[in-house]
Amino acid sequence: MAKNRSLAARKEALKGRSSVIRKIREFFNEGGYLEVDTPLRIPAPAPESYIDAVPSGEWFLQTSPEICMKRLLAAGYERIFQICPCWRDGERGRLHLPEFTMLEWYRLDADYRDLMNDCQALVRFLSQAVNGTRVISYQGTTIELEAPWERVTVAEAFRRYTSMSMEEAEERDLFDELMVKEIEPNLGVKHPAFIYDYPAARGALARLKPENRSLAERFELYVGGIELANGFSELDDSREQRERFEKEAAFRAALGKTSYPMPDRFLNELSEMGPAAGIALGIDRLVMLLLNSADIGEVVSFTPEEL
Amino acid sequence: MYTVADLRKGLKITLDGDPYIVIAFDFAKPGKGQALYRTKMRNMINGTILDRTYRSGETFEPASLEDRKMQFLYKEDDHYCFMDNQSFEQFHVDESALGDAKNYLIDNLQVDVLLFKEKAIGIDVPNFVNLRVVQTDPWAKGDTSGSDSKPATVETGYVLRVPPFIEEGELITIDTRTGEYSTRVKG
Question: Which helix (H) or strand (E) holds B3?
Answer without folding.
Answer: strand B2-3
